[in-house]
Design goal:
- With 201 residues, this protein is an alpha+beta fold.
- It has three domains: 5-68 and 144-149, no CATH class; 75-141; 155-201, no CATH class.
- It is 32% helix and 17% strand.
């Protein structure tokens, strides 16, 4: 059975590290950024994400403990007044602006997957239907699965800071140190930490 993840942070490169309630650490690699973060809606990290279960950040986007929590957070966003005052078409235009997306293709994908008409007011969708909408949006955006593995207790990395005057003193002394993922603290795990991990050469 998969453990409950209690914190998460960036690993080396695009990987994500998850700390389990069993004391083990797991690495998510490959796939899409949304999959590695358990964040199908690519919600940015902040108060909303934290209040909806986020356990870390990759520097911009929230990392959730599991995909169900990520979907519930996405549905929660669609439940806010900002989205509830719109139609599905208006919501998609807000969520995926035309300057960055082919909104017409997006809307056709949503209609095909859910059977919802684009003119449907968002406030007429039940909680279950908002979750259906969220899952259809995630599928359109390409939530591609990667791999997850248990990290060995002997696997090492190099702690690297940004080397400026904003680095925390307790992290500054770790700069360049070779550590295992089971040593605490870990770069990027504490709120606001800008340190990162690099491979041991």
């Amino acid at each position: 059975m998969e453990p409950i993840y209690i914190s998460a942070f960036p690993g080396i490169g695009t990987t994500r590290m998850f700390v389990g309630n069993n004391g083990n650490i797991y690495e998510a690699s490959g796939g899409s950024r949304a999959w590695r973060n358990n964040n199908p809606g690519n919600l940015e990290y902040g108060n909303f994400a934290r209040n909806n279960g986020a356990i870390g950040t990759d520097g911009r986007f929230a990392i959730f403990p599991d995909i169900a929590t990520g979907f519930n957070a996405m549905a929660g966003l669609l439940s806010t007044n900002v989205y509830q005052s719109l139609t599905i078409e208006g919501a998609i235009n807000r969520y995926a602006p035309p300057s960055e997306n082919n909104v017409e293709n997006y809307l056709k994908s949503i209609e095909r997957q859910t059977g919802f008409v684009r003119s449907t007011p968002m406030n007429q969708l039940s909680k279950d239907n908002l979750l259906r909408l969220a899952k259809a949006m995630a599928k359109h955006e390409g939530n591609i699965a990667g791999k997850k593995r248990l990290v060995s207790k002997h696997e090492k990395y190099v702690w690297v800071t940004l080397g400026d005057d904003k680095v925390r003193p307790e992290h500054e002394i770790l700069d360049g140190e070779i550590r295992t993922w089971y040593d605490s603290p870990r770069p990027g795990e504490e709120y606001g930490c800008r340190c990162h991990a690099e491979r041991v050469k």
